[in-house]
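tool_call predict_complex ligand=copper (II) ion
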Amino acid sequence: MRNRAAARSLVLGALTALAVTTPVSGASAEGRALAGSYCTNPDAMPKPTACIQLSFEGQTAQGYTNSSDRTIDLRPGVYWLTVDDTSTAHNFSLEAPDGSDQDITEVADAPGDVTLMVNLTPGSWTLFCDPHRAMGMYVDIEVGGTGQTG
Ligand SMILES: [Cu+2]
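tool_result ok
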């Protein structure tokens, strides 16, 4: 029990230490840039705007009520996750495979682009909006396979 709690706080500490709240130059994110944003889908509840999106290279996943395309597959490694928070009704949070999570942005703010460097270890991660996750406003990030090099 004690070890598990310590491990969780270590993961949270590592994520926090890596948080970058100022824009990062595109060069350092080349090949590892994940882009999170809000989106619109008529099936989203409670409103069509309760939709969250994550893109990486050719893949785009959308999270809304009953979405059948909410999973993005990635190899393990370090990524730059940039979320574009333009809403005071939604936020971006990231949940790690151990169940710990971190708010990248808050619900009430709308800071625009916020970039986080994150080491995506194998397992299931989730990018979600706190108030609307239960209504489907989340995307799953499945991390597996061979790790990146360099
Ligand atoms: Cu939301």
